[in-house]
Write a structure and sequence with these properties.
By secondary structure, this protein is an alpha/beta fold. It folds into two domains: 1-102, Rossmann fold, CATH 3.40.50; 109-211, Formyl transferase, N-terminal domain (Rossmann fold), CATH 3.40.50. It has helices spanning 13-23, 43-51, 66-79, 96-102, 122-129, 164-187, 204-210, and strands at 2-8, 30-37, 55-57, 84-87, 106-110, 133-140, 150-157, 191-194, 197-200. It has a seven-stranded mixed sheet, sandwiched between helices. A two-stranded antiparallel sheet has the order 8-9. A hairpin with a 2-residue loop joins strand 8 (191-194) and strand 9. Helix 3 (66-79) runs parallel beside helix 4 (96-102). The protein binds glycinamide ribonucleotide. Glycinamide ribonucleotide (GAR) binds next to helix 1 and strand 5.
Length: 211
């Protein structure tokens, strides 16, 4: 059972999608053991309470610098034996303190086809740019802003009638389908990072049936 921490700053709909997915697994080989949240008002906290996931609320302004902030988080992750981190709307850059410990075992979800529209309000950026296609990206986290080796992408059509709300809804629907599967595959080592390249493990049952 791989112990996972989900980091969130917002409504937590992707956290909840991961919970639902994990709940339905025939072989429950992952466990969402902790929600790390940096915003006391975040909807993710109430959702975690409903799902009975322990919540670790930690506010950046209570620490002198980013290093102290992340050391505090790291201590809790170690106490809870967290092996894998899924960022789900966590609106902070991950610094060296967490990255040194979890590089290759920390992934992020972003509402655009990276490297286009990184950073804040990717949906608004897509609408302003007038693109006809945007989408969703899942990637391993590195020190950059929404950079790092890409694991999966899925396109979303921008219709002429779309506004911020309708496009966000379409993107969320894709995220809720895609992200839990990728979290599961990465956490259990079916997808992994090897010298900066994203690799996919061939399942032995599949291989033997082909031989
Ligand atoms: C998601 O759309 C996610 O892609 C985005 O925040 C939203 C969180 O929604 N993440 C980023 O923009 C990261 N740069 P949620 O709180 O409902 O899961």
């Amino acid at each position: 059972m791989v112990r996972i921490a989900v980091f969130a700053s917002g409504t937590g709909s992707n956290y909840e999608a991961i919970m639902k997915y994990a709940d339905q697994l025939a072989v429950p080989d992952i466990q969402i053991s902790l929600l790390v949240c940096d915003q006391p008002q975040a909807g993710a906290i109430a959702k975690a309470q409903q799902w009975q996931t322990p919540v670790f609320l930690v506010q950046r302004r209570q620490f002198a610098d980013k290093k102290a902030f992340e050391q505090h988080i790291l201590l809790r992750l170690k106490e809870d034996k967290i092996e894998f981190i899924a960022l789900a709307g966590y609106m902070r850059l991950i610094g060296p303190t967490l990255l040194n410990e979890y590089y290759g075992r920390i992934i992020n979800l972003h509402p655009s086809l990276l490297p286009t529209f990184p950073g804040l309000d990717a949906v608004g950026q897509a609408l302003s740019a007038g693109v006809k296609v945007t989408g969703v990206t899942v990637h391993f986290v590195d020190a950059g802003m929404d950079t790092g080796p890409i694991i999966a992408q899925q396109a979303v059509t921008v219709d002429d009638c779309d506004d911020h709300e309708s496009l966000s809804r379409k993107i969320h629907a894709v995220e809720h389908d895609l992200y839990p599967r990728i979290v599961h595959q990465c956490a259990t080592g079916q997808i992994y990072l090897d010298q900066g390249r994203v690799c996919y493990r061939v399942l032995s049952s599949l291989r033997s049936s082909e031989e």
